[in-house]
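Entry type: protein chain
Record version: 2
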Amino acid sequence: MNHWTEIKIAVNSDEIEKAGNIANMVVPYGIYIEDYANLEQEIQDIAHIDLIDEALLKRDRSKAFVHIYLEPDVSPAEAVAFLSERYNAENIKHSIELLDCAEEDWRNNWKKYFNPIPIGKKLLIRPGWRDDYDPKGRQVLSIDPGIAFGTGGHETTRLCLEMCEKYIKKGDCVLDVGCGSGILGIASLLLGAEKAVGVDIDAAAVKTAKENADINGVADKFTSICGSFTEKVEGKYDVVFANIVADAIIFLSKGIEAFMKNDAVYIMSGIIDTRAEEVKNSVKRYFNIIEEHFNNGWVCFVAKKII
């Protein structure tokens, strides 16, 4: 029997809505919120009763929980790394538990379900441990996400890879803010870019990105930086990726143009469709949005500087 994995995230109750929105980036279903902050009022509103079980009344009202359920073919390690990185970026104090599966199992069992993934017309994302594949003329990108986000399976990464294929030109310099496994920068190099810089706040992700660049033979062209947003970034780039959460894109868009050449392309994803208009309106203050793509509740914007 294939077992699902439960991720249980504890946060302060006043941050549960934001924490839940970020959790929806991992999986748009199989989530429920456990929050007792307004227990009496909610029970009165829903059930119209005043008698409440004593065990419920003793619950810690200062904490709330997000429960996520992952199918066997979804990497718990990747999901946990993604959640932790995004919560840290939003300054949300949190703790994460994995239930129903021993740690040594969830770190490895999901790999059997990670199959080579064709992206667009040119790329094939290949798990580093899989040799049974036929590239059929596609450029093969070997990836081992480790505990970093980015296998190509999530809609946000897929959307960015499709835009990468469309916009990368030979000799381009690429910046990826929130690089995770390094997949977008490495794909850019394999498609002809001359240089790629990946930035991530998570040191483990930076290490994984370096390793993946080496696996794909592009380590000499790939630079990974551990830092927040662009604080350690220098130079100007032809293509900039930001596959991060909506609030981070809104924040980043205010200053990212300083790192873009005049004709550069800015590719943004990680945006839940319910926040698409909010992000779009913010980004339009600094950029012309030239493309919009939607996939299974996720949005990708492509923009250029206003000159």
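Comment: The chain is about 30% helix and 30% strand.
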